[in-house]
Amino acid sequence: MPHTLSSDFLIVGSGIGGLSAALKCASAGTVHVITKKSDTESNTNYAQGGIASVIAQDDSFDLHIEDTLKAGAGLCHRDAVELIVRKGPDAIQELMQLGVEFTRTHDRLDLGREGGHSKHRIVHARDLTGREIERALVHAVKNHPNIRVFENHIALEILTEHQLKKTAASITAYGVYALDIEANRVKTFLSKITVLSTGGCGQVYKHTTNPKIATGDGIAMAYRAGARVGNLEFMQFHPTSLYHPDGQSFLISEAVRGFGAHLINTAGERFMERYSPMKELAPRDIVARAIDAEMKKRGENCVYLDLTHVEAGTIIEHFPNIHRRCLEYKIDITREPIPVVPAAHYMCGGVVTTLNGETDIHRLYACGEVSLTGVHGANRLASNSLLEAIVFANQVFLSAQGLIKKHAITVTDFPEWDDSGTFSTEEWILIEHNLEEIQQIMWNYVGIVRSDLRLERAERRVQLISDEIENFYKKTKVTEGLIELRNIAKAAKLIIRCAKLRKESRGLHYNTDYPNSSDACLNDTIIHNV
């Protein structure tokens, strides 16, 4: 296989945003999709709750918009929110036409309700909505003649004038360098249009609901290439992930609380009424901080999510996957409460885009969790993320198809990747330990509750580790682990930098030195690699 490949569109990532964009773009040209693992491994695949959309007769666009703006704590961009809400029903119809089988009751879509929503509007496929959407999208992509998927490929850098050692008035993207993990060689993917849909960066933290691939690759690459990023201080910690010493954190869906589950402490007391009049249905940031406070106040390692007052058959019918997964850890959710802790779940910030998904870099687009569209503000409303991804994937296509006929590329434009260097197994073992150290630092100092002192300490320590990683990166051949570690370090530094700039508490960002919100800070936190 050649080391250089070219296409009209290059999609980096295979979640709902990437696959949706691929299917749209395939109507206008050839599409290459590169993905780090198998084509179904993504945050989409782990999304249990569903997609928020106005379907019910007693619901309205205005109500969904206001719920989103309220959750976003003053930082949502109203035009972006209106865009996804009004296009929501069409997005649901498109998914159904692709073969997504949503749960129905009496021949109608079964609509759930989650925290922060004033109406039942969560379209879902039992408690495995993401997996069902991914299944249908992957099937459609694999059967499209204009799309070619490259599994086990990880992008290293975005191709710009930098690699050509040229200066230009504005930066343009020409594709990416990507490591073929199985062949252990770097390939050049040239493209007229490049779309980042690389997901989030949950692996920056010790506890996360995200898969191992969520290492902040798109944010790190875009920033290094010259794009602005922002609002990275707003990491959403899902209030309820399974707490078990022998198991990796996995999500206990928001829908469980929406279905009537109670949060209790070890004494069996419900405590959410002390933190919010909405109790268990309060927005995620309030619930996560309440759980964190309750755990610290009582010296507990977890709290519990209790469904035992609901009939067992009903629980199993609505949450078969959660029931099965918990049974693997000898927890029967029909008879005993589920031990839960908050975990890093969703990055509300990302690469800055327009309403068309355009970044600062010409011909580089972004959609999905990697992007900062303005939809989520300081806190994402539950189940708006899958909706945002599919709507903005279409926005990307509508904009990009207009550019596709204007640009010609040749395979000789960019030099092949220089893979000279040595690889020291002994030194790599030392560098590899930096991952655990970064994750622990971020969890301890840049987690649910922050302070200026914690942020300063985190910044100093992460900078030292990042310098070690960069020095190693420059003198050795690249590997999958090294690429991800480098991106995690970069994402961690950017999160800390954004957190230090916000001198208030708002939404997902809570700083004990600035416990209140300030109108003077009612703006996005934007940073640029200058």
Question: Could you please describe the fold and organization of this structure?
Answer:
The chain is of the alpha/beta class and 530 residues long. Among the domains are: 240-342, Flavocytochrome C3, Chain A, domain 1 (Alpha-Beta Complex); 425-527, Fumarate reductase/succinate dehydrogenase flavoprotein-like, C-terminal domain (Methane Monooxygenase Hydroxylase, Chain G, domain 1, Up-down Bundle), CATH 1.20.58. The chain has 15 helices and 20 strands. The chain has helices at 16-25, 43-46, 61-71, 78-86, 88-97, 129-142, 217-225, 254-258, 284-298, 312-318, 320-328, 385-403, 425-445, 452-474, 480-501, and strands at residues 4-12, 31-34, 51-52, 104-105, 108-109, 111-112, 122-123, 147-150, 153-158, 175-180, 185-196, 229-230, 235-242, 262-264, 303-306, 338-347, 350-352, 364-366, 371-372, 526-527. Strands 1, 2, 8, 9, 10, 11 and 18 form a seven-stranded mixed β-sheet that branches. Strands 19-17-12-20 form a four-stranded mixed β-sheet, with helices on one face. A hairpin with a 4-residue loop joins strand 10 and strand 11 (185-196). Helix 7 crosses helix 15 (480-501). It is globular and about 65 Å long. The two termini are 37 Å apart. Residues 40-47 have low confidence and may be disordered.
